[in-house]
């Protein structure tokens, strides 16, 4: 029988306000963090949002990334692709988002007055740079929840634009989520990935994830044939890490076992 978690870690984690999450659990030095691509040195700004605070345009950008990278895998499985269900899942009350954007370019694109005074070609370049800095180039969504009686931080989605894949930013996002889980005090990080997603399986293996006991097993049909599951649930044990919290909130939310998605 799985151990029943009863320490209140999940309820406490999900009761924190966004400012508390940002300052005490994610960004000790401010409200965002600058990260650098190990491949080309490009800098990105990582910010935290909740399902209620994320801007509609950013939520749509996240949805578009999911649809572009994973919709076909859904369609080829028993899960099926349902935009309405995915959008509903993305707005679950306890969902959290770490978003990646290009770091603000400290030139013409950062000054509206300078932009307006510049020649037309320079204004056009400034506008492009401003739009590029504002756009979401990648994200990870996650939730502190219970899985099989265990306190976990569950990765629902992790996606990057095609240009950023394979440059180390996915690992940075995943590590950031794991660090939040350590500061919450959960036992492990978990995620679900389609077996057809070979690159995803390889990535998670390199990050230390292994098949969880809660992962579905092959089933035997009445015909005697064995049906393999379309996905696997992976997990990684998390040792308690340093926290920035001085006075953690004790207000509790009800225990909830949430449906799971399939990160790329």
What attributes characterize this protein structure?
264 residues, alpha+beta, eight-stranded mixed β-sheet, two-stranded antiparallel ribbon, 8 helices, 10 strands, disordered C terminus
Explain this structure.
This protein has 264 residues and is an alpha+beta fold. It has eight helices and ten strands. Strands 1-2-3-4-5-6-10-7 form an eight-stranded mixed sheet, sandwiched between helices. It is globular, with a radius of gyration of 20 Å. The two termini are 31 Å apart.
Provide a compact summary of the structure.
The chain is of the alpha+beta class and 264 residues long.
Tell me about the largest β-sheet. Answer: 8 strands, mixed
Strand content: 15-25%
- Global morphology: globular
Q: What portion of residues is helical?
A: 25-40%
- H-E string: HHEEHHEHHEEHEHEEEE
pLDDT averaged residue by residue: 82
Total number of helical segments? 8
- Could you give the distance between the termini? 31 Å
Low-pLDDT stretches are 1-5, 106-112, 122-131, 244-264
Tell me the radius of gyration.
Answer: 20 Å
The count of DSSP E runs of length 2 or more, i.e. the number of strands, is 10
SS content category:
alpha+beta
Question: In order across it, which strands form the biggest sheet?
Answer: 1-2-3-4-5-6-10-7
């Amino acid at each position: 029988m799985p151990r029943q978690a009863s320490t209140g870690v999940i309820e406490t984690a999900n009761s924190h306000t966004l400012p508390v999450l940002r300052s005490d659990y994610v960004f000790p030095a401010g409200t965002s963090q600058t990260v650098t691509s190990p491949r080309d040195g490009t800098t990105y700004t990582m910010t935290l949002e909740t399902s209620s605070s994320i801007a509609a345009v950013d939520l749509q950008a996240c949805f578009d990334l999911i649809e572009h990278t994973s919709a076909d895998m859904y369609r080829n499985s028993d899960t099926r692709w349902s935009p309405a269900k995915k959008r509903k899942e993305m707005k679950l009350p306890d969902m959290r988002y770490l978003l990646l954007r290009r770091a603000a370019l400290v030139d013409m694109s950062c000054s509206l007055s300078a932009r307006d005074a510049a020649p037309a070609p320079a204004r056009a370049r400034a506008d492009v740079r401003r739009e590029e800095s504002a756009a979401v180039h990648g994200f990870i969504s996650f939730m502190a929840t219970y899985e099989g009686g265990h306190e976990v931080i569950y990765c629902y989605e992790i996606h990057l634009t095609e240009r950023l894949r394979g440059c180390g930013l996915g690992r940075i996002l995943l590590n950031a989520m794991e660090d939040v889980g350590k500061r919450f005090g959960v036992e492990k990080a978990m995620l679900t990935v389609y077996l057809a997603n070979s690159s995803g399986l390889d990535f998670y293996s390199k990050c230390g994830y292994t098949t969880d006991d809660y992962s579905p097993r092959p089933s035997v049909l009445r015909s005697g044939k064995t049906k393999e599951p379309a996905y696997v649930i992976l997990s990684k044990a998390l040792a308690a890490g340093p926290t920035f919290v001085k006075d953690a909130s004790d207000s509790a939310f009800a225990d909830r076992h949430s449906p799971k998605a399939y990160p790329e």
